[in-house]
Design goal:
Length: 158
């Protein structure tokens, strides 16, 4: 199994196996229905900011993260074609297009996974900020990639 596939498998397993303490508290705080006794009003732990995970805002943000990762892939391939060396990953990884594409997909999956963990623990602002920061980093890195100058041939001055 390739490294990228392992990373995706581990991330997805972690997302679905973890259960947050907030959901356990919600179950414990649920009102008990018993026959013949009046029900007490238990304050709901759900606030007005609660939303489904796959709502319109998250879908747009995750699409933005995907677009940013795709832009990073294209810009990195473009500067590698011009002979510029990759500094974050090795050139060997970046030049292996299926592996590098898998790494970009794993980064998208990790972003969605971290957002999901924040959502499950009712940190909805942080859930959104994960995607916002990821979009900014991906687009910023892509802009940097496009501004890199090709290296001068040996023996010539710049």
């Amino acid at each position: 199994m390739q490294i990228a596939q392992r990373v995706i498998l581990v991330l997805l397993s972690g997302i679905f196996l973890l259960d947050s303490p907030a959901s356990a508290q919600e179950v414990a705080a649920a009102p008990q229905i018993s026959s013949g006794t009046p029900q007490s009003s238990v304050p709901s732990q759900t606030t007005g900011s609660h939303h489904p995970f796959w709502d319109k805002d998250n879908i747009v943000l995750f699409a933005g993260v995907g677009a940013g990762r795709a832009l990073d892939y294209v810009s990195t391939q473009q500067f590698r074609d011009r002979g510029v060396n990759e500094w974050l990953l090795t050139n060997k990884i970046v030049d292996n297009k299926p592996l590098f594409a898998g790494i970009e997909v794993a980064a998208l999956a990790a972003s969605i996974g971290v957002s999901y963990l924040f959502h499950r623990s009712s940190h909805h602002k942080l859930e959104r900020w994960v995607s916002i920061v990821h979009i900014g980093a991906a687009v910023g890195g892509s802009v940097r990639n496009y501004t890199l100058k090709a290296p001068s041939p040996p023996g010539t001055a710049r």
